[in-house]
Amino acid sequence: MKLMKLTIAVLLVSFISVYAQNYSYNYDEMTQEQYNAELEKWKSRLATAEQGISDEDARIASLKAELESLNQEIDATWNEIYATASSDKAGNDAYVSDLNKLKSDVNSFLGMSPEDIYSRMNELDDFAAKVEELKKNDLSTLTANEKLLGQIESLINQAREKGKTAVPPSYTVTRGDYLWKIAAKEDIYGDAYAWMRIYTSNSDQIKDPNLIFPDQVLTIPRVVGPNEYLVQKGENLSMIAGYSNVYGSSFKWQKLFESNKGTISDPNVIYPYQLLKIER
C-alpha cells in the first residue's frame, strides 16, 4: 500500500510539473480575478488527485480483505483434507519432511558406484521397507505425497538396476580345470589361494572342493555382496562376529558357524578368501 501511495504521489508531482511548464504565468500582469480563477483550478486538480489516492486506498483495502477471505477458505479446505487423513497441517509438514529425508538418502545411495550398491543391497531393502511403512499413513493418499512416494520408489528401482551391473560374472568349467587353476587365471583372481572364495561362493553346487565337472557354471564374485563377509588372513569367527558391520558381538561367533556349516567343519579353522554368509 505504501508503494502505491508513493507511486501516486510521484505521478501527482510529475503532473503538476508538466502543467507548471505548460502554464507559466506573469504574475505581475495578472489581475486578482485571474489569479483566483487559476488558484481554484489548481485546487480542483489537487482535490481530484487526492480523491484518486483515497479511491485507490479503498480498492487496495478491498482486495486485501478478499485475499484474506480467500486464504481462510484455502486453509479451511486444507484442514478438511488433513482431517480425512486423521491429521492436521503440522502432521502433514512432519510427514513431508520424512519423505524428503528418505528421498535425499536414496538419492545419495544412487550416486554410489555399482559395486558399492551391490555390496549394500540390503540397505535398499531397508529403504523399500520405509516406503511401505510410510504408505500406511493416510497422508500418503494426498496427491503431492503420493507423487513424492512414487519418486522415491523410482529412485530405489534405479539403484537396484545400477547395482545389477556388478552382479558376479560366471565361469564355465572345462576339462582339466580345478579350483586352484581357475582362481589363478588372470581374468579371474590371479591368485591360486583365492580358490576358497570360488568354493564358498558356490557351496550350493560344490560339495567337495576337489570335485568339479566340465560345463559346471561357477559364480565368480568380484565384490562382497550384501550379508556376506570375505575372510582376511589372521581372522577367526569370534573376531569377525565382533565387527560392527557383522554382529557387533564376538559372543555371536556360533551364529556365524551355524550359518556356514556347509563350508566350515571346524569353527576354529577358517581360511583367507573364505566367503561367509551373515544371517540377520
TrEMBL record:
Recorded coiled-coil stretches? 32-80
Q: Where is the signal peptide?
A: 1-20
Spell out the InterPro entries in the cross-references: Bact_Kbp (IPR052196), LysM (IPR018392), LysM_dom_sf (IPR036779)
**What lineage does UniProt assign to this protein's organism?**
Bacteria, Pseudomonadati, Calditrichota, Calditrichia, Calditrichales
Q: What is this protein called?
A: LysM peptidoglycan-binding domain-containing protein
Q: Which residues form the LysM domain?
A: 169-220, 227-278
Question: Which species?
Answer: Caldithrix abyssi
Arranged from A to Z, the UniProt key words for this protein are: Coiled coil, Signal
